[in-house]
Amino acid sequence: MAETYLHGAYGHIDASIVKKTVTSETVPxxxxxxxxxxxxxxxxxxxxxxxxxxxxxxxxxxxxxxxxDFANYTLCEAIAAHFDNGGDGVGPIYVINVLDPAQHKKSPxxxxxxxxxxxxxxxxxDTIVLDTLKVKDEGGSTTYNEGTDYTVDYLxxxxxxxxxxxxxxxxxxxxxxxxxxxxxxxxxxxSADVIGMASETGExxxxxxxxxxxxxxxxxxNLIAAPGWSQDKDVYAALVSAAQKINGHWDAMVVxxxxxxxxxxxxxxxxxxxxxxxxxxxxxxxxxxxxxPMAVDKSDRRFHLSSLVVAASQQIDQExxxxxxxxxxxxxxxxxxxxxxxNSKNRGFDQQTANQLNEHGITTVVGxxxxxxxxxxxxxxxxxxxxxxxxxxxFATSMRMLMHITNGFQAEWSPEIDGPMTRALKDRIVxxxxxxxxxxxxxxxxxxKPKIYFEEAENxxxxxxxxxxxxxxxxxxxxxxxxxxxxxxxxxxxxxxxxGGDN
Length: 503
What we know:
Strand content: 15-25%
Helix content: 10-25%
Number of helices: 11
Strand order of the largest sheet: 2-3-1-10-11-12-16-17
Oligomer: single chain
Shape: globular
Number of strands: 19
Largest sheet: 8 strands, mixed
């Protein structure tokens, strides 16, 4: 009999064996803060602590709002990395916003006087909760009615985000008017909000809301990030924990960052400091990719590398029809320099120096071959020369492929659960999964001769009587070409060309 009660289709990543396609599409999920107060009727649209699908920059503005203030609105950084990066967008992505304007707000309300001219008044703000806007006469004694006396539009201009008030009819006269509104305050969100919780009453928040991605949207989350938050060791631990067996089934890879300035306001702005910080704070899960430092694009926007890694990974996966076997390392990203903090004197490092980070499981960004590229293909568990490290933890693509295979198995066979387990179905599962494994070899995702087994020793009669069946797979994910070295020897044989002959 199985050790635990099972009901459903399951996948398990087993220990490595080292010797001499229904595919799960890439589904990035980001947890953080978005300016949802910029969305009219946000409270009725369930955009707080609930996964939202984003397909474009325009879609993001309509559903969760958008701002260039990445520090206070961390999800906007992820949105920009995917859809506002100077090139073709890559998506969709899924975001879980933890900023609730009803709680994370400035107090008291903001009040300002603005001029109405030719029936139009405006002011800039990316913190306004639009639903709270009230328009009054200059003295504040008369409150005008939206729709009857005026209309409100919110414009995403190139340089500023603008609230536009246009009068309707003749009730409002040109001249000064007074506006009051609540402002969002992203600085009041803390790591506890991001970590979140699952309540006994079925409420979910923060990272815990990951389980709603599949439950509500029927997609399998497989890349998880929280740029601007994941450098907190408690958030990192929560991400790694939550990404294992989401809904009891799905495995996802976490992409996290080391800080450039930590929570104690200490600079982490050199390679030595980064390596030390990683070791002391336990950023070493084989189920994660860890990045450092940050990077700046041509518009001087600062990006955590986690958002760039996720965007690049999704792009590459899509080129391979959702199969995650190619590393994002050595792939171009739209940045122009490394960033180590406002007060750092570090002017950056080159590719060879970056290898000091790579050999300790840190992905970075470097200038290489005329462009800026991500650099590093390992999991956070990698440590060069460590004989105790599980082989599967060497490369992030290995872990992602193992997750892809187990997630795909569950997605494929879940419809068969609770149907009759005939000999024909057992054989069909074996044959179909072998076909998929062979197809992965054909496209380059696996090497060798991967095999699926239905072993009698692993399926005792007591288990079969309880309806519990097990299949075992042995696969070898294709490793990246991490280094290529040519050995060239000098020989004096060429001097014979001086003394006759054709050579």
